[in-house]
Amino acid sequence: MSWALYGSFFYVLSQWLLLIILAKLGGPTIVGRYTLALAITAPIVLFSNLQLRAVLASDVQRTFPFSTYVALRIVTSLGALLPICGIAFWVGFTGDQTIVICLIGLAKVIESGSDIAYGAMQKNERMDLVSISKGIRGALAVGSVAAIFYQTKSLIAAVVGLNVAWLVVLVLVDCRNLKGLADVSPKRAARTDFISEVTTGRMVSLCKLSLPLGVVSMLMSCNTALPRYLLAIFHGEAAVGYFSAIVCFTIACTIGPEAFGQAALPRLAKYLVESITKFWHLMGMLILAAVLIGVVGIMTAILEGTDILRVVYQQEFSRYSDLLVMVMVLGMAESICSVLGVGLTAMRRVNSQVSVLIGVVAVTALSGWWLIPQYAMKGAVLSALLGMTVWGVVYGVLLRTPRDIAVHGVGY
């Protein structure tokens, strides 16, 4: 868990530093353009990922070989580029916006390659390898984007540098780290016979198994992105920039619980077979950590919010200190939902998550359409918080609903 926390901290901090750099050097409009591209590409990429990392990490019965996961990830990731580029060209964005969206989509596809490698490392409880890779990836991303944007003032050039940095890490770090792991053969995975994977039915079977998880990821991402879409429609790129920059402070609440949850996922899956008491004990610790970290974040925002925003971004951001408090409440709710979702994933109860998240997205969309035109960024936070509240309550009920988990073949 310590390694998971270190890796997640440095990687998420690097993504936050990217926004800080863009805010200081380019202003809220550049931040808005970058984060809007992330919001557009994320649902598509997360759906295509099918949460294969979680499936691989929790595949304690070794149902599928590593090469099958690699084959499916390559097919779905490359397939994700088509709708991303289609949306960028056909929705009516400007030329710069279109190029940035396509480049961000490519970066996310490269990142998905590292993600499947992390799944193999996580399954073997080698979170140290994951952490080191994330640290290197984050440092190279920040360095390349900062240097290129400072010299060129071009967001397009900076995102090209981001793509190159992540590709270097995938090839030179992640592929090498796979060597020596149990049940993993990087050379065999690299020579994956796609025809064999399809004809044997393994890739198709894995896709069917993981499809509900992909839908869950897409719905979760849509729920996060919806307030940004509506802000862009009603208030423009600058409002998206302010909102996205401030919402990044939810990292302070979510990074710990999310890292702990990912590290605990294989252990939770084992406890469901070995000891239900240990399962609930570990879940209780994860939820308690989420609540305590959230309370600290809220109190910090109340006491020091104005100074924090001024120092981290610019003076003009400090007028939104009251928004920061609301954002920290949202962060605590998000981290609790994340922990509950890990528990349901360990139970392999995913179909029920899909129906819940459809309702959550509907709540966020309807409340955002009502609140954001009048209350702008505060309305965006309130709509997200309403959706997150529904999400947490229903997930909690599902997690406590009795179900026969003693049978080894519990499915999705």
Characterization of the model:
The chain contains 15 helices and no strands. The longest helix has 50 residues. It has 412 residues and is an all-alpha fold. Helix 4 packs parallel to helix 10. The C terminus is likely disordered.
Write the topology of this structure:
Layout: H1 2-26, H2 28-49, H3 52-57, H4 66-90, H5 95-123, H6 127-152, H7 155-177, H8 186-190, H9 194-199, H10 202-235, H11 237-247, H12 251-274, H13 276-312, H14 321-346, H15 351-400
Helix pairs in contact: 1-2, 1-6, 1-12, 2-4, 2-5, 2-10, 2-11, 4-5, 4-10, 5-7, 6-7, 10-11, 10-15, 12-13, 12-14, 13-14, 14-15
List the keywords.
single chain, 412 residues, mainly alpha, 85% helix, globular, disordered C terminus
Can I get a quick summary?
The chain is about 85% helix and about 0% strand.
**Content-based structural category:** mainly alpha
Cα distance spanning the termini: 26 Å
Radius of gyration: 21 Å
> Can you give the mean pLDDT?
83
Q: What oligomeric state do these chains adopt?
A: single chain
Report the sheet-strand fraction.
under 5%
Strand count: 0
Q: What helical percentage do the residues reach?
A: over 70%
How do the SSEs run, as a string of H and E?
A: HHHHHHHHHHHHHHH
Count of helix runs: 15
**Spans with pLDDT under 50 lasting ≥5 residues?**
404-412
Principal-axis shape equals globular
How would you sum up the major sheet? none
